[in-house]
Known about the structure:
Helix content of chain A is 32%, strand content 19%. Chain A is of the alpha/beta class. A 5-stranded parallel β-sheet of chain A has the order 4-3-2-5-6. Chain B has a 7-stranded mixed β-sheet with strand order 4-3-2-1-5-6-7. The interface between A and B is large, with 56 and 45 residues.
Amino acid sequence: MGYTVAEKILLAHSDADHVEPGQVVMVRCDVVLANDVTGPVAFRQMEKMGTSAVFDPAKVVMVADHFAPAKDERSAILIKRLKDWSLAHGVVFYDQGRGGIEHTLLVQEGWVVPGSVIVGGDSHTCTHGAMGAFSSGLGSTDIAYCLVFGEFWQAVPGTIQVTVSGEKGVFVTGKDVILAVIGQIGAGGGTGSVLEFVGPGVQSLSIDERLAVANLAVEAGSETGIFPADEKTAAYLDGRTDKVWQPVHSDPDASYSRRIAIDFDRLGPLVAKPHNPENVVPVSEIVGTPIHQVVVGNCSNGTMTDLRQAAQMVKGKRVHERTRMIVVPATQEIYRQAVKEGLVDILVEAGASISTPTCGPCFGGHTGALAPGENALATINRNFKGRSGSPDACVYLGNAFVAAAAAIAGEIVDPAEVAS
Amino acid sequence: VIASGKAVVVPGKNIDTDVLYPGIYLNIDDPELMKPYLFDGLDPALRDQLVGDTVLVVGENFGMGSSREHVPLAMKAWGVRCVVGSSFARIFYRNCINLALPAITCPAAVEAAKPGSQISVDAAAGTVTVDGREFVAAPVPPFMLEMLERGGLIPWAQHKLARS
């Protein structure tokens, strides 16, 4: 019996001579990541383990993104602790103004190559599966163990094969692919599994869009979402990394726990209604829902692709008087490119506010919290109750076209109507 | 591993990490200081039931979402001895095992438990007893059982460091 991509990567990173779903193996890490929320908790756990030695500082990266720029003194202390620890241990630290949102940043900076294993103290570490890696979000005690020993325990997951086919519609993006999957299998439907994306439709998804797809794999309960490396992956990595890599593909006789199909020919823009990402409906079903805040950004959809889509929708128009629009470029490089391309000018002219890269408005930490009774349409990954501020607010999830269109209309609308 | 306590029932399925511990309080890294915010987005009154040794009784896909270890850290700080659930989200489950907080899958026991029920769990035997009635739980895989028996990932790491 052959292996899936996930099984092959785990086999290559463990001492096992065979792997099968359910088997627990110790997996070696190529990159260990933490942020200003999860890093300091991990450092405490490391102290309890009785060591301050890092297994390989060259494989460790710390990013200040959640409460950065520091929203208060307590946050500033955490960020300082992250920075001091990083300097003391000789690991790479991306401070505010030098990096951005961790997952977009690590891919951009060439930390992630196909076939590698990335672990992070952040559930959206699954994003890196977009590059054909096995990437996994872990808690802080796990991260502490990884910092010391460079490995973590992992029950080998099953693999759900997602075959994407058809021609992508004008206002349809990777976000709609993953929302369709979550709607189909549910918020717990991927537990104990990875999602593997294959089929002719995958070719039409840029790396930016694949990041969005993989990013929301955890919202189906999955370990990660993997795109086996192809020409797009290779082209993206060209000149971006000096790491040596080989593409990893599933064997033809690999065993899958489930197979599902997504057909672009039958897929329009989707929205996930409050308060669970599995509440997925076509935009057409909820047009007219008033929207008080739009956020374009975060680790799933703060890429150049998203900013271009948002700018295309709002160009020459004004954000509705009922609505605030916040745009968060995911990294400094994206921010700068958006300035160069004139996107920032278009967005600001329309009445959007541009934020420095931060996770703040996504997780309700700062800069963009919602009041009771307000509705948001955001390109983020979670619409849990209270996720972005008041528990009496509602968050709808959608792609950057849908979000920007809602900003102009002041309500949920088919993006085609705003564009015409 | 045997754990017992008074049942605190957390109703509903797909209870996510954000209602269990809202993001705004994530800039806290000391478990004692996390305690006042556990269940804050769900039902703060649940905290009033966390007196003495307790066992949380939870529904399907409990703990979905974030990797924030603040949730099980705060639970442990409150004296929660075990979590008995219909099913668990992956990272929450890992975090519990790593902190030696048994997360036991047993839908029948969840069905039977009421607030205040006396619950005891034998992870190795795979049983959950609710007010004297015994239920068979999903077996805890050998690796996770060993992790629980050794007191979690911190003693596991200490042991490994001592050997090397």
